[in-house]
Q: What sequence folds into this?
């Protein structure tokens, strides 16, 4: 199966069913199918060849989905670009993958041009009506009418093999230079079809699109839904910043399947009244991307007693490779939930540094093989194939019952004064404090540092340290605890560890603003 | 003198290990149990004491009793200053 084939069968069977329920416009399956064909024709007319990369820099909407699909139907490789990223980063991505065709919303094009980003783009396609801006030359700017006026007839199918490159997702490498992860049709659909099967996704379902398209969670939202004839309900960029607005949208649109980072659920609990209002329409909650702090997971499950909860696990390079369904809310003493067992047809091994399998309970690195493992890194066109089995850099152990537990990133394993410290363990202890909303640990110059957001202004540094000292060996108690108002986040909604660390080292307290302090509770 | 010594030690601990947050911290707060002092921070604190008060804290003088709290550390410092004859 290939992504370019997905929508047409439903456009024929149920042409008037809503495929994309957007904020500003909705598209039926027939309209989405036709618009995707128009995009494909417009790309082809502008010289896009099979295997060319096509950028899509448009806020999440029916048009954006049609552009992705149209690129695939033209045999091109689509590259979703983050609408929240600065032009300088877009330039790195555009140059790395040699983007000659970019679908872009008019305000974003204005940003590109103001920042002088043109090369190597030859054709901009505006994703909305409006005047064609000057200053793009020598690139050509196509008005929206060039897409809507193109033929809705399908092009000949671009290929047969599911192992061809379908799209690339740019992740920030540890060096800060974005890396293009190459995903085939098979890679994407192995995950989305598996997930759809887990919950028997069907045409009556209403699936939220919360994650940005450059984040791999969106692969489920789009391709699982559109392969089953379901409706994708866009929860747009201005909605995901507010817990109340997100919950309003779930209620208004009767969203019943939800996939996001845990932070989005925490936002709905804290700022949306999820505990009081509930969300009776939700039948499935998938979460991934970061560790779900246990106390917030319990609150979410209590607020949504009718929903099935799944913890999905895997880096962008393997999409989801392990999964765990929570049968019941974790008991109060549980410190962590499993990341589960192999999923999506993948297999895995847990190996020690010498490459030997570890025994049950022992921690080693997770290696994954199977249909979700990426083709490789684009790497400026050099195309570095993925190592197989793929070393994820994640530290895990297997319980005797076969469930896999997560212990943190291998690059989060640090040495402090000769002691091995797994930052994830420090964070788990920190987050189990009822007064800590979220936080991370890091090593800076042989010092263990915690930066955390208190849930309550009466929480003091002393109290946090004392709490950690009762749960961790002394060498794992952070020597410095910074209580801040908020932590910087990445465009996919996760805590931005790199920026937090950089700001801490630079003592940039404008990015890490000190938390408000109220009188501490009485010392006992 | 003793209040000055206590205030200096307290101020140093709060700024170095509590990010300046003195809420809940008193001269009797248990520095071990509250995760403030471990072997490395104890060494750093001794260096601070030696420099600030011109004394020489000996390894034999460092134990869980003498380094329990700001009050006990201040007492150790006062004792040493008195013995040095520099207490006046």
A:
């Amino acid at each position: 199966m290939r992504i370019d084939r997905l929508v047409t069968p439903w456009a024929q069977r149920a042409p008037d069913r809503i495929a994309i329920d957007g904020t500003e416009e909705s598209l039926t399956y027939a309209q989405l199918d036709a618009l995707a064909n128009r995009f494909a024709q417009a790309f082809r007319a502008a010289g896009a060849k099979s295997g060319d990369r096509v950028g899509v820099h448009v806020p999440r909407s029916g048009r954006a989905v049609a552009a992705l699909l149209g690129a695939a139907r033209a045999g091109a490789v689509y590259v979703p670009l983050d609408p929240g990223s600065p032009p300088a980063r877009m330039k790195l991505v555009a140059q790395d993958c040699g983007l000659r065709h970019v679908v872009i919303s008019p305000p974003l094009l204005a940003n590109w041009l103001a920042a002088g980003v043109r090369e190597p783009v030859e054709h901009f396609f505006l994703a909305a009506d409006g005047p064609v801006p000057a200053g793009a030359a020598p690139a050509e700017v196509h008005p929206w009418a060039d897409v809507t006026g193109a033929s809705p007839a399908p092009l000949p199918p671009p290929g047969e093999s599911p192992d061809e490159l379908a799209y690339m997702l740019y992740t920030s490498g540890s060096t800060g230079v974005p890396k293009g992860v190459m995903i085939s049709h098979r890679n994407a659909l192995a995950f989305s079809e598996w997930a759809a099967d887990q919950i028997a996704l069907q045409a009556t379902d209403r699936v939220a699109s919360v994650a940005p398209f450059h984040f791999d969670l969106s692969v489920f939202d789009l391709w699982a839904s559109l392969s089953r004839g379901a409706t994708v309900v866009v929860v747009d960029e201005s909605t995901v910043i507010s817990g109340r607005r997100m919950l309003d949208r779930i209620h208004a649109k009767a969203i019943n399947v939800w996939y996001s980072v845990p932070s989005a659920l925490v936002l709905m609990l804290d700022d949306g009244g999820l505990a009081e209002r509930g969300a009776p329409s939700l039948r499935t909650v998938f979460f991934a991307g970061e560790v779900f702090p246990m106390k917030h997971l319990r609150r979410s499950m209590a607020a949504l007693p009718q929903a099935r909860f799944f913890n999905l696990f895997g880096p962008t390079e393997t999409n989801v490779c392990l999964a765990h369904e929570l049968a019941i809310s974790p008991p109060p003493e549980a410190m962590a939930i499993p990341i589960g067992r192999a999923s999506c047809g993948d297999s895995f091994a847990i190996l020690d540094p010498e490459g030997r399998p570890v025994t049950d309970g022992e921690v080693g690195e997770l290696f994954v093989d199977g249909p979700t493992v990426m083709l490789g890194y684009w790497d400026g066109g050099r195309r570095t194939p993925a190592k197989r089995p793929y070393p994820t850099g994640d530290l895990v152990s297997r319980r005797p019952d076969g469930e896999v537990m997560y212990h943190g990133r291998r690059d989060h394993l640090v040495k402090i004064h000769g002691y091995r410290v797994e930052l994830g363990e420090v964070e788990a202890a920190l987050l189990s404090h009822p007064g800590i909303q979220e936080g991370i640990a890091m090593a800076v110059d042989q010092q263990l540092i915690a930066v955390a957001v208190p849930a309550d202004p009466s929480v003091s540094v002393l109290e946090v340290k004392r709490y950690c000292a009762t749960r961790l060996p002394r060498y794992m108690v952070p020597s410095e605890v910074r209580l801040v108002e908020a932590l910087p986040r990445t465009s996919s909604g996760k805590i931005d560890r790199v920026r937090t660390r950089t700001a801490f080292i630079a003592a940039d307290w404008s990015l890490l603003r000190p938390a408000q302090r109220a009188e501490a509770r009485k010392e006992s | 003198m003793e209040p000055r010594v206590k205030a200096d030690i307290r101020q140093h601990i709060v700024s170095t290990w509590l990010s300046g947050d003195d809420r809940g911290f008193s001269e009797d707060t248990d520095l071990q149990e509250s995760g403030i002092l471990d072997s490395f921070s104890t060494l750093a604190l001794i260096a601070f004491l030696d420099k600030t008060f011109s004394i020489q804290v000996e390894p034999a003088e460092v134990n869980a009793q003498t380094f329990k709290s700001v009050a006990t550390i201040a007492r150790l410092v006062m004792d040493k200053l008195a013995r040095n004859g520099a207490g006046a």
User: Anything to note?
Assistant: Chain A has three domains: 1-17+27-160, 184-409, 417-505. The first helix of chain A runs from residue 8 to 13.
